[in-house]
Amino acid sequence: MNDHLLIRPDGRAELVMRRRLPHPPEKVWRAVTEPEHLKQWFPAELTIDGDRVRYGFGPDGAVLELEPPRLFAHTWGEDELRWEIRPDGDGSLLTLTHVFGDRFGAAGFAAGWHTCTAALAALLDERPLPAPGDLARLHEDYVAILGLIPGELAGGTVRLERQLTRTAIEVWRALRGDQAEAGSPPPAPFGIPGTPAGPVTRAEPGKILEYETAGGAVRWELREGTGHGTRLLSTCPGAAATLAACRARAERLASGLLADQ
Q1: What is residue 6's DSSP assignment?
Q2: Looking at the structure, do residues 132 and 6 belong to the same domain, yes or no?
Q3: What is the mean predicted confidence (pLDDT) over 68-96?
Q4: By CB neighbour count within 10 A (0-12 exposed, 13-18 middle, 19+ buried), where does 155 fall?
Q5: Sequence-distant (≥ 6) Cβ neighbours of residue 215 within 8 angstroms
Q6: Which of 111, 145, 179 is a domain's end point?
Q7: Any idea where the Activator of Hsp90 ATPase homologue 1/2-like C-terminal domain is (predicted)?
């Protein structure tokens, strides 16, 4: 397994996943392009129809490259998928490249493709398809593998973005957001280490919590994320030590949500 994430000059993310399969390229090619095989491991219907790709729902994709039995590239919505098959000894090396705009969604995409390619390998081996694994735990593994530990510091402001594996309401409860009251200090999980918190100025359950500090406003926001979880966005005044503390806090939150499943 060789999985990594690149950021293109245009700002889009490029997820690359490689799998060595003990089968000839022609057999792998059939498994990644023929509907009767695809339906057993691919996450949607897929039929190649001339220069179009039909998914069974939503708009069609476009075929970008088609070179049997070596290369199949196509669009899916705003994303691009590229399946490349190379001979490797008595087997094949399959390289999947997924290009997309939401960098922090990469762990969710990787967890999904990891599960799909495991099913593809079983199909090729003529083994029973594996049962779906723990996608939430796999997601958290890929956060580390792909280097998605969040946070940046610019102009005295810490900004943190992190995909989580639970719903917004579940994250809100884990942060004790149901205890937040306008005019009172925020619940402790919303605090910034070493920074006294002022009164809550805005609290929308499952969405937003804002409060004041001597250095400026702190904002926590929960948005729709990639996959089944929510996206955490947090901004606060601070320096390098604050960034480190906020990163550690976000990872504790993610670990706690995983443990509570």
Answers
A1: E
A2: yes
A3: 97
A4: exposed
A5: 156, 195, 237, 238
A6: 145
A7: 23-124
92 and 183 part of one domain? no
d(C-alpha 233, C-alpha 81), whole Å: 28
Same domain, 97 and 176: no
**pLDDT (mean) for 145-153:** 92
Q: What percent of the chain has pLDDT over 70?
A: 99
Whether residue 220 has pLDDT greater than 80: yes
**Do residue 160 and residue 226 come from a single domain?**
yes
Q: Is residue 257 within 8 Å of residue 164, measured between CB atoms?
A: yes
What are the φ and ψ backbone dihedral angles of 130, each rounded to 5 degrees? -70, 150
The alpha carbon dihedral of 120, 122, 127, 129 has a sign of negative
Read off the pTM: 0.93
Domain final residue, candidates 130, 145, 160: 145
pLDDT per position as a tens digit, 227-241: 779 999 999 999 999
Query: Which domain CATH number covers 192?
Result: 3.30.530.20
- Are 10 and 138 in a shared domain? yes
The share of the chain scoring above pLDDT 90, in percent, equals 91
Model pLDDT, residue 1: 57
Q: Which domain holds residue 36?
A: 2-145
72 vs 81: CA distance, rounded Å: 8
Domain count, the chain: 2
Could you write out the DSSP letters of every residue in 85-148? Answer: EEEETTEEEEEEEEEES-GGGHHHHHHHHHHHHHHHHHHHHTPPPPPP--HHHHHHHHHHHTT-
Mean model confidence pLDDT for the chain: 95
Q: Alpha-carbon distance 149 to 12, whole Å?
A: 18
